[in-house]
């Protein structure tokens, strides 16, 4: 009866795996800023503009643009600012076109020191904005191109607090692209002090500014960095700002802020405790989930709730009290997601439900009384494998009560019987036959529940009729010690110690 234990142990592991999944790349890619485009376009999804010029002509255009910037930077006179702005604008126009390697050419021509010169304090806003825009699009390029920004990072960070809102926002965009490159650059940005000014930008009431800052922060917090998460929450007003923005009608804004919550709750128990115990964040997320319909907004909401519920069972019991509207609402919303045509939503919803189902017996009973169970049983039969696996964790958790003083969970017989009567056994046996060892172990644990727990000793017969014996036997000589021992134990205990020897 280790199904419940296995599910509880995997909750935190699952919570920190988001960076490895395709959906993370889908929504958190670097972002190129085009002419008149706000922060809503990923590099991976841009539409390349049709070009008719020959590559040699385009190469020459970039070379000319960099040379013009050099001349403008060195020029001293009454219209020196306008000369620099004009040169920067032409450079930015070329760097906004991703269908030709303008970034590579500009770097070879020595553009970074020139842009750094244009970012100096005391410069006009228009000049600063154009320079930061150029750096933003360079940082949206290949890894080595992103790393070329290293000399400019201190200036970009300083402008977050010391310049106008428009300049600060563009610098935050550039830093978000740098942070998206990986751990090394994220750590460097944090060490250079980027976290605090980006966090303070969240206090703004300007929607565009907050969206950009939230996106940059989610890239900066991505991964397991409890210290960074705690530092962000310790900035005065940040927690209240997160809650305030999540309640706004601006869907894009709420989505970006929800991603910040995802990463705050991913690797820091301290941050999770603050968000759960000192705020009504779960209620805000549940309310938002109930009225959201787009895939782009639902995924971070589900992920946030799943991470917050991935602590110990005590946390779930305190926040989601059975009988309270918030608990009924979240189960209704998760059931809605289970019916979605998007596999990501089904999988995420099942994962959140598995965390809730690992709570008290009252939580398990609440789920069993909802439409979620019938949906889960259907998915176990017909869904893609990864969803079946998540669903199996939910159903397995629903069949066992939390561990007692002996450390061993007890069987919830009525739940087990209801699930088996509705045909779930074959779904678990199919998991045993899969090449995924974690899924196979889950299937074997459930089969053990059936063999030991079904009334009137009918478990062995049910397993035999569902062709379960053959599935169990495939692990009798397996290299995995745990699965081999479990397989032999089940065969010996329930089908005779000499079972199969004659063959």
TrEMBL record:
GO terms for cellular component: cytoplasm. GO terms for biological process: protein import into nucleus. InterPro entries: ARM-like, ARM-type_fold, Armadillo, Importin_alpha. Keywords: Protein transport, Repeat, Transport. GO terms for molecular function: nuclear import signal receptor activity. Signal peptide: none annotated. SUPFAM superfamilies: ARM repeat. Belongs to the importin alpha family. PANTHER family: IMPORTIN ALPHA. This is Importin subunit alpha. It comes from Artemisia annua (Sweet wormwood). The lineage of its organism: Eukaryota, Viridiplantae, Streptophyta, Embryophyta, Tracheophyta.
